[in-house]
């Protein structure tokens, strides 16, 4: 969940706030023949085909939701933020001026660099749109997963926080904290740990018998971080991260559901169906006419008979699913098939279960482990379940949303890595050093100036153009588009392009470092511990 992992290649960028910049690029951000995707939150992952993230992991394309986002940041407009999980509740809250939150964490293992600025900007922009904004220092993770001493962590943490404040984070309106001193986060982590198990960690993260317990504990702490903004009240919460952090987001969404008192779903009879079974019964409820049966009622046994008469290839389900649903329907016999909304008791207290019974208006039926309501739609039922849960001491967590930015290419090509000095620009680099690094950067140019003029440059493969799109052009889409068009048309040569980018980088670093000095007092006044009481 931290936003500090190495950042690599962009595949393609949008420069005009809408259409793609080059007609021969894939609209899904992928590249034909690219490698498979592997996601590892601790830094070994490499994403060379963003299309696989949509197909393998269920990440949704951000393009589809962009029109629903008010005042979108340039990282959204240009496609640098390429994907999301369930961002619509956040966008809706933003449009309607309703409560929502944004949180991301920073593992203080080195100096903040221009890759981290993406996450800083995303948190700050959400705060400016009305979010309750949270910036956390993942010091427990840095100590457990990377082995840093607390003295090293303190030094790096201060540098991250100064850059975050210098870029515009408002500490009076937002919340800054470190994992190791936030007791509420640690208490929540303990509760969440009761819902997680080692086999899950083994499957998600590849943990084994050699994994130390502190590393596993740091994962549960990150789950608590992600849900922390909802401790006072449930609300949509977005976690801006790189795609390598998606395993954390998926686990947090799952734990948020497990912590809920009630699961709300559609149902068609007194017994429980899984998702595939429910979809099959729903289809036959719509298809079959009760008038075709002897007492003008559609009953479970009627649906079972129809399913058994239908060839399996027409049902598009597995034999196991078909066998299971037919068995359940047959056992229910003459019970009517009738749509209802179900409140399934996951972990509710007795008082909460009774309170929910009282709160449901209209026709209802109460069973040992669930309540069926016949006059409530799904959305109203979700709201009711959440309200009853919160009133009776539960969390009522909304599954957290996430947005994913593209990995940034290193200046020398390949990954941008803090361990490769020439590949990245630290936000603490001397401005002249930043200038020199850009001047020495790899480009997407042709072998000669003549070929560049004839064939045009390869802006989509150029780390220098990426600097313009991600950082140096700022909010000026026209400038980013102008640089792109001049490059691919052969009107811009690499020497002049790098000189302009280098000067802009020098100016940016000088300005940023001046602002860091200006916010020193602001950091001292902020409600966050700058020195850890821990040592080791």
From TrEMBL:
<feature type="short sequence motif" description="'KMSKS' region">
    <location>
        <begin position="415"/>
        <end position="419"/>
    </location>
</feature>
<dbReference type="GO" id="GO:0004830">
    <property type="term" value="F:tryptophan-tRNA ligase activity"/>
</dbReference>
<keyword id="KW-0175">Coiled coil</keyword>
<dbReference type="GO" id="GO:0005524">
    <property type="term" value="F:ATP binding"/>
</dbReference>
<keyword id="KW-0030">Aminoacyl-tRNA synthetase</keyword>
<keyword id="KW-0436">Ligase</keyword>
<keyword id="KW-0547">Nucleotide-binding</keyword>
<feature type="compositionally biased region" description="Basic and acidic residues">
    <location>
        <begin position="12"/>
        <end position="27"/>
    </location>
</feature>
<feature type="coiled-coil region">
    <location>
        <begin position="498"/>
        <end position="529"/>
    </location>
</feature>
<comment type="similarity">
    <text>Belongs to the class-I aminoacyl-tRNA synthetase family.</text>
</comment>
<dbReference type="InterPro" id="IPR020653">
    <property type="entry name" value="Tryptophan-tRNA-ligase_arc"/>
</dbReference>
<dbReference type="GO" id="GO:0006436">
    <property type="term" value="P:tryptophanyl-tRNA aminoacylation"/>
</dbReference>
<keyword id="KW-0067">ATP-binding</keyword>
<protein>
    <recommendedName>
        <fullName>Tryptophan--tRNA ligase</fullName>
        <ecNumber>6.1.1.2</ecNumber>
    </recommendedName>
</protein>
<keyword id="KW-0648">Protein biosynthesis</keyword>
<dbReference type="InterPro" id="IPR014729">
    <property type="entry name" value="Rossmann-like_a/b/a_fold"/>
</dbReference>
<dbReference type="GO" id="GO:0005737">
    <property type="term" value="C:cytoplasm"/>
</dbReference>
<dbReference type="InterPro" id="IPR002305">
    <property type="entry name" value="aa-tRNA-synth_Ic"/>
</dbReference>
<dbReference type="InterPro" id="IPR002306">
    <property type="entry name" value="Trp-tRNA-ligase"/>
</dbReference>
<comment type="function">
    <text>Catalyzes the attachment of tryptophan to tRNA(Trp).</text>
</comment>
<feature type="region of interest" description="Disordered">
    <location>
        <begin position="1"/>
        <end position="40"/>
    </location>
</feature>
<feature type="short sequence motif" description="'HIGH' region">
    <location>
        <begin position="108"/>
        <end position="116"/>
    </location>
</feature>
<feature type="compositionally biased region" description="Acidic residues">
    <location>
        <begin position="1"/>
        <end position="11"/>
    </location>
</feature>
<keyword id="KW-0963">Cytoplasm</keyword>
<dbReference type="Pfam" id="PF00579">
    <property type="entry name" value="tRNA-synt_1b"/>
</dbReference>
């Amino acid at each position: 969940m931290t936003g500090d992992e190495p950042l690599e290649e962009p595949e393609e960028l949008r420069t005009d706030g809408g259409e793609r910049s080059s007609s021969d690029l894939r609209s899904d951000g992928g590249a034909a023949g690219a490698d498979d995707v592997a996601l590892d939150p601790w830094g070994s992952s490499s994403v060379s085909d963003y299309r696989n993230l949509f197909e393998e992991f269920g990440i949704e394309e951000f393009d589809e939701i962009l029109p629903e986002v008010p005042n979108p940041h340039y990282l959204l407009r240009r496609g640098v933020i390429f994907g999301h999980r369930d961002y619509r509740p956040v966008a809706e809250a933003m449009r309607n001026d309703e409560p929502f939150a944004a949180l991301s964490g920073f593992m203080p293992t080195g100096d903040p660099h221009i890759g981290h600025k993406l996450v800083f900007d995303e948190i700050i922009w959400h705060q400016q749109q009305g979010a309750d904004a949270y910036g956390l220092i993942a010091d427990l993770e840095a100590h457990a997963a990377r082995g840093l001493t607390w003295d090293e962590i303190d030094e790096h943490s201060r540098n991250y926080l100064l850059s975050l404040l210098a870029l515009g984070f408002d500490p009076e309106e937002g919340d800054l904290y470190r994992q190791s001193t936030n007791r509420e986060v640690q208490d929540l982590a303990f509760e969440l740990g009761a819902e997680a198990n080692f086999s899950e960690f083994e499957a998600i993260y590849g943990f084994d018998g050699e994994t130390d317990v502190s590393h596993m504990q740091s994962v549960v702490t990150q789950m608590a971080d992600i849900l922390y903004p909802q401790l006072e009240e449930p609300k949509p919460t977005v976690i801006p991260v790189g795609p390598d952090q998606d395993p954390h987001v998926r686990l947090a969404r799952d734990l948020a559901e497990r912590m809920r008192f009630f699961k709300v779903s559609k149902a068609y009879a007194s017994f429980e169906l899984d998702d595939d079974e429910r979809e099959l019964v729903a289809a036959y409820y719509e298809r079959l006419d009760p008038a075709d049966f002897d007492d003008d009622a559609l009953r479970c046994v009627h649906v079972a008979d129809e399913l058994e008469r239908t060839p399996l290839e027409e049902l598009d389900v597995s034999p196991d699913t078909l066998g299971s649903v037919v068995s359940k329907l047959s056992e229910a016999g003459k019970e009517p098939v009738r749509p209802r909304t179900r409140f399934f008791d996951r972990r509710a207290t007795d008082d909460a279960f009774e309170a929910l019974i009282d709160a449901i208006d209209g026709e209802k039926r109460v069973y040992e482990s669930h309540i069926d309501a016949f006059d409530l739609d799904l959305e109203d039922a979700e709201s009711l379940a959440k309200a009853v849960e919160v009133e009776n001491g539960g969390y009522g967590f909304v599954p957290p949303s996430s947005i994913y930015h593209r990995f940034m290419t290193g200046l020398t090509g390949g990954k941008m890595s803090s361990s490769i000095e020439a590949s990245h620009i630290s936000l603490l680099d001397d401005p002249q050093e930043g200038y020199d690094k850009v001047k020495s950067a790899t480009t997407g140019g042709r072998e000669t100036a003549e070929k560049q003029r004839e064939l045009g440059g390869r802006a989509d493969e150029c780390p220098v153009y990426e600097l313009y799109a991600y950082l140096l052009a700022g909010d000026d889409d026209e400038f980013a588009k102008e640089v792109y068009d001049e490059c691919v048309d052969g009107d811009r040569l690499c020497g002049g392009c790098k000189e302009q980018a280098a000067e802009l980088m020098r100016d940016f670093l000088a300005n940023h470092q001046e602002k860091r000095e200006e916010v020193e007092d602001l950091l001292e006044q902020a409600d966050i511990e700058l020195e850890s009481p821990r040592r080791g």
